[in-house]
Amino acid sequence: MQEGVYTVLVTDVSIEICLDSIQSIIAAERGGASRVEFCSDLFEGGLTPTLGAFQVAKEKTSIPINVMIRPRGGDFCYSDEEFETMLADARLFREAGANALVFGILTPDGRIDKERSRLFLDVARPLEVTFHRAFDMTCDPYQAIEDLIELGVDRILTSGQEASVPEGLELLSELIEQYGEKIVIMPGAGINERNFARIHQTLNAKEYHMYLHREYQSLMEYRPDHIYMGGLLRQPEFLIQHTDSNRVSHMVGKVRS
Fold first, then answer.
1. What is the pTM of this model?
2. Cβ-contact 252, 10 below 8 angstroms
3. Close Cβ partners of 4 (under 8 Å, ≥ 6 residues apart)
């Protein structure tokens, strides 16, 4: 089981922190979070968490929880069965008390899939909806954002169509200046304590998305080193990543200062 995303609200700036476990949600709340986006499998960029994990997280924390709806890793062009799964998950998490849903669907030619997005929004409402970094894989970001505004999407998570926000500052600046009053544009990917002040000075966005974690040793004492639960490209078997509440508190302090 892994993490999703949470938001620290400080003055008029929201900091959304990427996480993927119940333990991380607890740490996020302890560090000053006020909103969580809950995912599984951040190694794949974030997938739909289990309903059971969501329910336990709701029992153990009081912060609002946004839920990622993404049936698999890879691209954002889905089969009929995958899309049906997304709609079913959206209904389940809406009925279970999610604060908001996060999704992204593209056509084969790299545009917003408006037809399927409308169907998803019909299921998701009245919850808020975020369109995730599938936006960064569109062929025309200006047409894509116009489409999302037309659809009524509340928020876009984007790195400015680059690998990280520091690399995408030029496009992010243009999008925020041109569309920032029509839709929330939330920069995310590669933001940390060291570069946040410069990024915020450049963008002055209302919300940011971050991943503030540390690695913890597994509780396992017996550690066979010849067996792996995944493929050759893998994370260390006995290191576990969780949100670091101290890093969250430190970031909250930087935003306040």
1. 0.88
2. yes
3. 18, 19, 20, 25, 36, 37, 38, 39, 40, 46, 49, 65, 66, 67, 68
Structure tokens at 121: 């929004």
DSSP string for 112-149: B-HHHHHHHHHHHTTSEEEE-GGGGG-S-HHHHHHHHH
Domain count across the chain: 1
Under DSSP, the state recorded for 214 is E
Q: Does residue 177 sit in helix, strand or coil?
A: helix
The predicted structure's pLDDT at residue 1: 36
In the three-class reduction of DSSP (H, G, I as helix; E, B as strand; rest coil), residue 217 is classed as strand
Rounded CA-CA distance 200/255 in Å is: 9
Q: Give dist(CA 131, CA 140) in Å, integer.
A: 15
d(Cα 89, Cα 81) in Å, to the nearest integer? Answer: 12
Which residue segment(s) compose the domain that 30 sits in?
3-256
Q: Which two tokens stand for residue 180?
A: 């920032």
Check: CB of residue 14 under 8 Å from CB of residue 54.
no
Cβ distance 156 to 147 under 8 Å? no
Q: Are 32 and 253 in contact (CB under 8 A)?
A: no
**CATH code for the domain in which residue 103 is found:** 3.20.20.380
Reported as a single tens digit per residue, the pLDDT across 182-234 is 999 999 999 988 999 999 999 999 999 888 888 889 899 998 877 777 665 56
With a CB cutoff of 8 Å and minimum separation 6, the contacts of 129 are 100, 101, 102, 103, 120, 121, 153, 154, 155
